[in-house]
């Protein structure tokens, strides 16, 4: 659910180098294309325009703001006649042809965004129909239509289905649902990284736990999209073995594995060439959301605290999608995005594009007279402290290869 996840998918089709805005230290100094006035951010949108715009609109709505009509219209205008979205169309007035590389990730993100802002039922319906039409026989989706299914793409599509009120379990291809794909990507408990989720099997068919896929897959298995709050605590922190894993078991196994990984340093580390052992801020933010959704509030709060102390500079350099990820992480743990280590995430995001309308009274958060500020932690901080201090949080500690972290 982040620009890094999009970059991972792009890597699978051989264009990772071109996706630098998703992984580099800062935005592109000179965009290759003219920036539309309704688009958020200043970096080249060629590979992430729809993705970052979608996350921005979702984050603004989550914070209670009404996105600017210009921003919403830009996103809606990116849709092809068949319902699909590409990462970016520089000339949306031209009909989509075979040269336009539509993808499931951009389409599913746009569905969630347009559903959140409202008023685009027809566009959302066409996009969902297109997603259903390109479902693979294993029940999942790949980044590109017809491409091999992967955990990340399947999970973001699940989020789109859930957003429109469709039970993902009812969306089948050859008798298999997206939950069957996630079960197939679950690393067996007895292996290294057991319980975690793989992005895809390797060339030999072996599954290796991947934190990025784990964060996406937890939400997917729970039938959730980008926006979530703390869920019910898992019954056990042990890896559950079953012949046919239920979606809840997939989520809990992956959540336990993800918690054990992030607990080692308080954050995830990058596995991309040239950035090994550096903090992976984007996937760490996604991990906060996933852990909270799986009811692992104590670890989610600890990891959010690390982000609050370390991720401000990253967000400043990375742009709107990064701010959106942090806002969604704050929402998941009940924190105030108006006071993120002294920075207002919402204000910083809103300044990167067309100004949204002020939040309604029902969405304002007030503390010490501030509508978008206040304590860095809400009620979930208290809950987390009680969990940690009173009963403790048991994490499934499992050895994993350094390259899998």
TrEMBL record:
Query: What Gene3D superfamilies does the database record attribute to this sequence?
Result: 1.50.10.20
Could you list this entry's UniProt keywords, alphabetically sorted: Membrane, Metal-binding, Signal, Transmembrane, Transmembrane helix
Signal sequence coordinates: 1-24
Organism listed in the record: Streptomyces camelliae
Domain (Squalene cyclase C-terminal) spans: 107-152
Q: Which SUPFAM superfamilies match?
A: Terpenoid cyclases/Protein prenyltransferases
* Pfam families xref list: SQHop_cyclase_C
The protein in question is named Terpene cyclase/mutase family protein
- The record lists the membrane-crossing segments as 377-397
């Amino acid at each position: 659910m982040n620009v890094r996840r999009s970059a991972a998918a792009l890597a699978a089709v051989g264009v990772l180098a071109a996706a630098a805005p998703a992984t580099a230290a800062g935005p592109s100094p000179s965009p290759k294309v003219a920036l539309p006035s309704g688009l958020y951010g200043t970096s080249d949108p060629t590979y992430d325009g729809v993705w970052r715009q979608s996350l921005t609109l979702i984050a603004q709505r989550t914070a209670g703001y009404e996105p600017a009509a210009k921003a919403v219209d830009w996103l809606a205008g990116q849709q092809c006649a068949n319902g699909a979205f590409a990462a970016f169309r520089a000339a949306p007035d031209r009909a989509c042809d075979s040269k336009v590389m539509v993808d499931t990730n951009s389409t599913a993100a746009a569905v969630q965004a347009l559903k959140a802002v409202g008023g685009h039922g027809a566009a959302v319906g066409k996009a969902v129909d297109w997603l259903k039409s390109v479902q693979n026989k294993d029940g999942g989706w790949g980044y590109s239509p017809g491409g091999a299914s992967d955990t990340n793409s399947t999970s973001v599509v699940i989020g789109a289905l859930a957003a429109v009120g469709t039970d993902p379990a009812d969306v089948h291809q050859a008798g298999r649902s997206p939950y069957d794909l996630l079960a197939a990507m679950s690393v067996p408990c007895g292996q290294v990284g057991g319980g975690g989720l793989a992005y895809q099997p390797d060339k030999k068919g072996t599954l290796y736990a991947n934190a990025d896929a784990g964060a996406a897959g937890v939400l997917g298995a729970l039938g959730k999209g980008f926006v979530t709050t703390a869920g019910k605590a898992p019954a056990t922190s042990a890896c559950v073995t079953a012949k046919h894993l239920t979606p809840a078991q997939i989520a809990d196994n992956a959540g336990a594995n993800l918690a054990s990984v992030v607990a080692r340093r308080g954050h995830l580390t990058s596995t991309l060439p040239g950035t090994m052992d550096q903090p992976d801020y984007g996937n760490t933010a996604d991990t906060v959301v996933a852990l909270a959704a799986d009811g692992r509030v104590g670890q989610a709060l600890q990891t959010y605290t690390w982000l609050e102390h370390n991720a401000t500079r990253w967000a400043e350099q990375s742009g709107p999608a990064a701010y959106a990820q942090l806002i969604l992480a704050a929402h998941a743990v009940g924190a105030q995005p108006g006071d993120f280590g002294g920075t207002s995430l919402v204000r910083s995001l809103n300044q990167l594009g067309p100004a949204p309308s002020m939040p309604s009274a029902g969405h304002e958060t007030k503390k010490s007279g501030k509508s978008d500020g206040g304590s860095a932690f809400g009620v979930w901080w208290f809950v987390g402290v009680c969990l940690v201090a009173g009963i403790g949080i048991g994490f499934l500690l499992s050895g994993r290869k350094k390259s899998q972290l």
